[in-house]
Predict the 3D structure of the following.
Amino acid sequence: MIIRKRGKSYFVDYRYHGRRYREIIGSNRKLAELVLKKRTVEIQEGKHLDVKPEAERIKFEVFADEFFRLHCEPNKKPSSIQSDKSIIKTLKSYFSGRYLYEIGSKLVEEYKLQRRKNVGPATTNREVAALKCIFGKAVEWGKVKDNPVRKVKLFKEPNARTRYLEKPEIRKLIDCCSPHLRPIVIVAVNTGMRKGEILKLKWNDIDFKMNLIYLIETKNNEVRKAPMNDTVRKTLMKIPKHPGSPYVFCNAKGRRFSNVRKSFDTALKKAEIKGCVFHSLRHSFGSHLVMLGIDLKTVQELLGHKSIAMTERYSHLSPSHKARAVEILDLNLVDRGIEAGTKEAQRPKTEEALKELSFVTIDN
């Protein structure tokens, strides 16, 4: 490391990690000597050019694995763990080889644009949210000082109309289901249970005396009770129990069905129903309850939503139903002489609505 002079200006000349650096200081030699001493100290302490101490020099892929082992595996259910594992694998393929402190908001924005070329906005947003959580833990555990993802904005996701099936569609779908799928679909449209909740259902989770299904493993990790109407009760009672399996829906060997997507898609094709997925059956449950007059708070409890905002997705009504509703109200006011604002007009009870919700008749 030396001081050189070119013309009237002094500059410091040195090498660091095999690269040559030259800094022009000016016409003051003493200032050049001070800069040279400062650079010498920075290099000795490992702080030159913002190079971090060894304790902070952690590669992204190393910390991502530590995050998964210490945060994801102990705190999340199996399905979420697998999802996190897949997302972390994707993030590692892009950010591997970089130290945590080298990843800034600009690099994250570049990742967003790159991923958006291959996947939709929702998938990209989930990955960015996971990256934000990873860096949040890195800050909490003292690995970095700031979270570079904190101010990164997510893509706007399309607010598509929630697809629900009309009664004729539901009946046609059930008629087109294979024998093992039919009771699964009947339970779905009459209880609003998620596919995973139905496929994991065990016989000891069902109380036929109280007409209740106890859901132990739910998305929100909260136990909830799903009331059974007569259709669900008769459907479940007709399913033969496998002597070696606790599961309600299982194959001949007693193994529970892990997925029914293929058979469900086949049933949709036979029924000539488009724009529908299994989760649409849950939408149908919520939508028909609202159209039967059940208040959103009750529907929220039946669906197991933590927020009423989620339940409002199911409050949309078809134009024909709105027209029928005001016609019924008009007849009700005229026939019974009820004036607007009185408390005589009652909404139907939940039990009656669940009976009305039965989309099929089960033979005795």
The longest helix spans residues 121-140. The mean pLDDT is 84. The two ends are 95 Å apart (CA to CA).
